[in-house]
Write a structure and sequence with these properties.
Blueprint: H1 7-11, H2 29-36, E1 40-47, E2 52-57, E3 62-67, E4 74-80, E5 83-87, H3 90-96, E6 106-108, E7 116-123, E8 136-139, H4 147-154, H5 162-174, H6 178-182, E9 189-197, E10 204-207, E11 216-221, E12 225-231, E13 251-257, H7 260-265
Antiparallel strand pairs: 1-13, 2-12, 3-11, 3-13, 4-5, 4-9, 4-12, 6-7, 7-11, 8-9, 9-10
Amino acid sequence: MRAPADAAERRARPAVVCYPVSTLPQPDMPRLEAARQQMTKLAEHIVPPREALAVPVPAGHFFRIVSIEGPQVGDLNLWNAHDLTERFFSGKTRALHATHVTTGHRLWSTLPHLRPMATITHDTLAWYGWDQDGGGVHDVIGTRCDPYTNRLLSGGEYHHCCHSNLTRALAKTRNLPLAEAEMLVHDVLNVFMCTGFTHDTHQYFMKASPVRPGDYIEFLAEIDLIAGLSACPGGDCSASHSSDAAACHPMKIEIWRPDQAFLAAHIPPPPNAYSRSHGLTATP
């Protein structure tokens, strides 16, 4: 189609950030860094390749996702441990922060709660930044590999996509029917995954993760959480996913307790204060 006469003028209009965050409450990073120096490891959990675990993390505690044997990406879900309908909202996290998150960013919960569920307190891959393809690490743009899209594109059945892995893990941890658990699984933080959009067609791409054994990303649990992590069947996501073709490795979840003074002072953020009237006057 022929461009209009003022096409260049229209394209030249300035970009405006949708959500200016100057008034967004910021985490006290110096305080969190001090707390990190006084932590005791409480537990560690090994997530097998092409499987998932869902584990509790108490408010005020730290948890780490650790690379232990080889390059491996993971899909992270978070739920409020007392209300599973409050869960991680990747889209709003992306809108408030960026397409890829790192130290100092927060993982926000779904409406109507819209509050920080976790704060990223350390990231050993923060050095990666942006590469020549426009790729970055720890994205909140991908949805999670799932058996429905796989069936649509390949015609086959595969049961170890991250969606299915997280469904089984949540069902087991909370003793839920599989169908009920599946409806609570949601879009993810793609931990360690290197992704972006192609320059020409603007398609979502993945490339080999830069993660190596010993790397980790660490979070403060702002509220009582269930953290679900799937060790993606794509391995380091350098070639494929939703199959058994890629080399896959286990991952580790560590739970860390800070000192008692920090725990005593920790106040979980309240749910969003919006009235929920939606412009209508309440009926007496």
